[in-house]
Design brief:
- The complex is a heterodimer of chains A (162) and B (765).
- Chain A is an alpha+beta fold and 162 residues long.
- Helix content of chain A is 33%, strand content 15%.
- In chain A, a hairpin with a 2-residue loop joins strand 3 and strand 4.
- The N and C termini of chain A lie far apart (42 Å).
- Helices cover 30% and strands 24% of the residues of chain B.
- In chain B, strand 9 and strand 10 form a beta hairpin.
- The chains are: A alpha+beta (162), B alpha+beta (765).
Amino acid sequence: MKKHVVSLTINNDLYDLLIEPRKTLLAVLRDTIGLTGTKEGCSTGDCGACTVIIDGKSVTSCLMLAVSANGKAITTIEGLSSDGSLHPLQQAFMDKGGYQCGFCTPGFIMASKAFLDENPNASEAEVRHALGGNICRCTGYTKIIEAAMSAAEAMCGTREVR
Amino acid sequence: MAVHSVVGRSVPRVDALEKVTGAAKYGADVHPPGMLYGKIVRSEFPHANILHIDTSQAEKLPGVRAIITQADVESGRKVFASDKVLYFGEPLAAVVAIDPDIAEEAVDLIKIEYEPLPVVQDVMEAITSAAPRLHSDEPKDALLRRTIRNTLKQLCQDDSEDRSEEKNQLEVQLEMLKEDVYYNISAETHTEVGDVDKGFAESDVVVEDTYTIPRVHQTYMEPHVSVASVDSTGKVTVWASSQGPFAIRSGIAGTLGIPLSQINVIPTIMGGGFGGRFGVTMTHVPAVLLSQKTGRPVRVQVTRKEEFLDGRPAPGCVIKMKTGATKTGDILACQALAFWDSGAVSGASIGSTIRVRGVYKIPNLKVDAYGVYTNKSGTTAYRAPGAPQAIFAGESQLDEIARLIGMDPVQFRLKNMREEGDTIPGGSREPVVGYKETLKAVADAAGWWNREKSPNQGWGVAVGDWTNGCGPGGVYLSIHEDGSARIFHGSMDITGTDTAMTQIVAEILTLPYERVTITRGDTDSAPYATGSGGSVVTFTMGNTAKLAAEDTRRRILELAAERLSVEIDALELKDGKVFVNGGDLPKSILLGELAAYSLNTRGGPIVGKGSFAQQSSTPALAAQIAKVEVDPDTGRVKVLKMVSSQDVGFAINPMAVEGQIEGGTVQGFAWAIMEEMQYDENGNVNPGFVDYRVPTSADLPTVESVIVEVPAPNGPFGAKGVGEPPITPTLATMSNAVVDAVGVRINDLPIKPEKIVAALHNKGS
């Protein structure tokens, strides 16, 4: 199959890649780049485990072809903490026990970030609704929502340096 | 109660950082150099003879390295179907290629010729004589009947003495077999205590109903995956995401005839299991076969769709049940007849049918349960296997009786609940249990005693019991020269069990939590550990870690006595130091100093060992109360409040324990309200998250968890297993709440909106 040159900026690093058009962004992130923090849970865009952020929006990377991400800036879970300090969402998921097996956690953190960046004062009901595209089978969501709400507060406090 | 400094606290889990940063390595994150990609070829019919498998086109596809079928399995054990398929999605062959997309293309190029056979998907049809037989042409009792007939014939020829009584007995037996014949039976179990007919006759109220519980999938978020690498000497290395690396090792050894010593299973972090991640056939065995064939590492990863087609979900079942009680609220008799949908292979949790008895004093009990073959994939454990199904029937009946005799459903349960020393129907006597405490705790926390509701709102209560398992485990514990401790073991952590072990060791060695670390070894290096299922790990590995810590403490005190020239009795381990009690000058020595000192002693470095196998465990109760609102026009059930209490013995990490209670409760909620694997004559029709709905955060309110602590005599610090109990009552909790809201009882789960609307319509007309 003919390959295409694709330029992706992933977590601020530029990659020029030669890619078959059938490869998803998820497959390229995981198998080509080796960023395995982004997970594949359903391959149909229903579980949210593969959520990354592109241009500020959360995207299920299993549904996006890598060629259609050409020229875009992509943030994955690996790009979230900076200068050795955790993002408030990561800290909150740790402190509140917002994970168990952890497989859905990167997706939840990325989806929460995309939503809370745009809606810093969201209510619990709004957060529950916004995270409705992510499936967790372990926690029953109680501690995930607690973590997201607690991070939302911390994120408001540091908004100007975001 | 003793005051603890590390156990009993909600410290962040030891794996928190790697899980929130994406650093944790799961099964599909392993990528050895030169790895190839395997894909499974699956049956397109739920029941068919295989006439021919043509792989020639697929073999020609560039990038394909090998294609294997059952003919390539030297051990002869079944890995792929060869003559006949019994369910849609059953594996027939495997392809391996340099790229996953090429492997998938190759799968499509394999041509299989089938001769379709009649299909049976419904258990109640499968047990009839008209149903196609999946495994045998004879009903299960045919052999027994033939034996009885032969004996009768001999007795008739034998006139030497009067054996009419014996003959009569055999004739009666034969007659019963004729009446009770079921077909496609994979297994059965029967229990009888007292006389149920007498119990029902003496009852003032008797309720009788049929409960249908659907087959549901564990839907752990990480689909099955395996990476295998077989070297030139035949040594097999498998990176496995599984609930039990040692079970995977023996499973591969048994299936492929490879010695245990030639297999190393390296456990990866696991994306959930809930009982469904113990098997080897889905990915591990095919990966090993493909690696043997190609001499390269091979990854076999299934999709979510394949999980639904070929996973091993929880069995659905049909339970016909009858319960009798006096009008003053004493349960007198309970009878259940259950047919469990086992799928194409034996294995449904039929033994759990007896859990219809609940935690109540029931003088007369009769339980008959059958596993039934159908054209579906086999089943396996799912969080308290079999209990949610049986308890749904039992707790629905109790709710109905309470309603009929006008007694509060909590009071009715409290009146009949067993206590320490009471006989368990069909079992022994109860040890120390916290049934009543747990139910009262949830009632108090939920505001049950002065509950209020608006029209179309209702409150439901139910309880469910489960006893954690116990298994073998080993732990090594080392003290380093910097005074820190490291635990080495081989058990899998999903829910925080590594954290619990770490807290236990820190507590006993009087170290801060951060000074104890934990490493999981592979099956070549780590001592044996039981699989992480059956709520077993904190009980088993917690006890094992405790033994290792106590052993370590003995060696520490021995060294300190030697070093400080005092008697051991005069020493005390405190705050990570050894102190000399009494005397004029306070003397102490740091653990790190002792560890360094030990390196030059006759006895050597500080290494503690814990080894543990069996201790009797104690039953735990989960009790739940839900408040719901039902929209009578749409049938939608909205949960307004969900409170879940559980007797956990002792919560080593309350935050992790709450997480288990919350997660289990939500899984039970989903089983009651939305989840159902659906089948027609072509196989499973909802193999994906669009048609098989699991709950999201938008479907639920906050689950309120209530921890009850009635210590288990043999648990570490009194802890009981906590993973499984919280799913057991929820099916009934939800159903009972819906009845209270709109007066209709849906016994055919899940309680979908259309069923409520239809039931309300029927009730009205």
